[in-house]
Amino acid sequence: QRKSRSPVSDLPLPPGPPAWPIIGHLNVMPTSHEWRTYGEWAKIYGDVIQLRIFNKSLIILGSLDAAKALLDHNTSVTSDRPHFTMIYDLMGWDWAVQFMGMGPRFLKYRRVVQSLLLPQSTRAFWPALDHGSRSLLRSLVHDSANIHQHVKDHLGGLMMTVLYGEDEGPTRDKYVELAEEAMHGLVEAGNIGKFLVDFVPLLRFVPEWVPGAGFQTQARIWRKLARDMIEIPFADVKKYCDEGTAPASVTKTLLEQQSHSKSNEIDTELVKGAVGVLYVGGADTSLSALNTFILSMVLHPECQRRAQAEIDSVVGQNRLPDLSDQASLPYFDCVFSEVLRWNPGVPLGVPHSVMADCELNGYRIPAGSTILYNQWTILHNEDVYPEPFKFIPERWMPEEGKPLPPDSRSASFGFGRRICPGRHFADSLLWTMMVRIVAVFDLAKPLDADGNVIEPSGEYLTGLVTHPAPFACKVTPRSQELASLVE
Ligand code: HEM
């Protein structure tokens, strides 16, 4: 006779480190590189861990199976986001789909954002990718000393060209500056624990003049930045559209859809917000992956040479590789997969929140829990990825009789209804930038004034999105002919 399953409410909570009365795990919470501590705890307590801060439950998933079971197969209750009062209510980021809770407004915004980023829709961005990546290569030919700055500037600029149609120049630089300022506030406020109002939401009604309500002044300043970021570029595109001179862009596409639509599904606030989130979601994450790629090439010249040999044999040296070559460069594809696995840019993913009690592996996941999925642990599981801390693109090469490990993309872009809608665009954008950099340049460790090799530390900075700690990189055109291709 089959044993009947216990109701969810009877199930035990997942295990975790010992908790203190009242405060729970508050004083054992890691304050930096949290993914490493959570990874250590996963070895002790298993791949589903529960932590408690006062009465708030935090669940950390440490395996792909657990993440899929909870977030892919139970999406109707696990696709909510935790509510951040400071960011959402006070700083006015309520236009950003990333922070929206489940509900009709989220579903409407998500539908629009997703439709803009479908593989067939993103083909329209290919000319901008071609143009923007050439421009990056040109900057590197003329000033090889500042690769990190050039990559950051060109990536941000390219995103703005795609979103607002603005070509290289002071206006586009201004858009990037506005977005970076707004995101600086976001990163500060995203430091959970920094603002008490996130734990006591009623404090948001305290007026700014009350002593101790400095968070209201800060929120007001950041709120203006978050608004300017979407309002100023939008107003320019709207004006050009009205004059009939707007170049192709995501904003223009949405404004056209808005004017042709009979329903009022797409309102102006949605257009501004749906475009703004693409920069928020795409710029820093893509920059992290590009920096990791550069680091991997500097540290592994043998992989770089193999990638260059493949490009030379398939594409030759008379033109730059482009997206039509992607399927013909299998080794480079392995390099890309390994970049996403070796040091995932969003190591703990973006938190989900649970809307109703549910079950996972015989444990109760209480309603209201915040869920983190530890991509870093998932992608460094040595049973799945042997020698997980080594950069080994060959692990992705198909071999007769040997199953491939789960694609790094299966964890790095998140799960369920919240899966990164920009993943196809990220694929084209990053592939183009990466392949072109190594097609034209050698990346290497530089020498100091005494002729000693400067070794990168290989360390990563802490944060929701992580980047390699600054490292020096020598950039040399592989040949004069290749360098001249970018002029
Ligand atoms: C290497 C590059 C990227 C990585 C690693 C990455 C990763 C992620 C992750 C982990 C999430 C959270 C998914 C979840 O909640 O489970 C996410 C969400 C999101 N990403 Fe990306 N992303 C990248 C590039 C992009 C790009 C290029 C765009 C846009 C052009 C983009 C737009 C978004 C948006 C709008 C969301 C929020 C989705 C939602 O809350 O429903 N991302 N991304």
The CATH topology corresponds to Cytochrome p450
Please identify the structural class as seen in this structure.
alpha+beta
Strand count, sense and barrel status of the largest sheet are: 4 strands, mixed
The helix content is 40-55%
User: In the CATH classification, which architecture applies?
Assistant: Orthogonal Bundle
Q: Report the order of strands and helices.
A: HEEHHHHHHHHHHHHHEEEEHHHEEH
Biggest sheet strand line-up: 1-2-6-3
- Count of DSSP H/I helices: 18
Give the strand content: 5-15%
CATH superfamily: Cytochrome P450
Give the number of DSSP strands.
Answer: 8
Shape: globular
Gyration radius (Cα, Å) is 24 Å
Count of discrete structural domains: 1
Mean pLDDT: 94
Bound ligands, each once: protoporphyrin IX containing FE
N- to C-terminal distance: 76 Å
Low-confidence stretches: none
CATH class term: Mainly Alpha
Written account of the structure:
InterPro entries: Cyt_P450, Cyt_P450_CS, Cyt_P450_E_grp-I, Cyt_P450_sf, Cytochrome_P450_fung. Keywords: Heme, Iron, Metal-binding, Monooxygenase, Oxidoreductase, Signal. The protein is of the alpha+beta class and 487 residues long. The protein has a single domain, classed as Orthogonal Bundle (Cytochrome p450), CATH 1.10.630. It has helices spanning 34-45, 64-72, 75-78, 85-90, 104-116, 119-122, 126-142, 147-164, 170-189, 214-243, 250-260, 268-299, 301-314, 330-342, 375-378, 409-412, 423-440, 480-484; strands spanning 48-53, 56-61, 352-353, 358-360, 363-365, 370-373, 441-444, 474-477. The strands form three sheets. A four-stranded mixed sheet has the order 1-2-6-3. Strands 4-5 form a two-stranded antiparallel ribbon. The termini are far apart. Protoporphyrin IX containing FE (HEM) binds at residues 97-98, 110, 113, 277-278, 281-282, 285-286, 289, 345-346, 349-350, 352, 412-415, 418-422, 425-426.
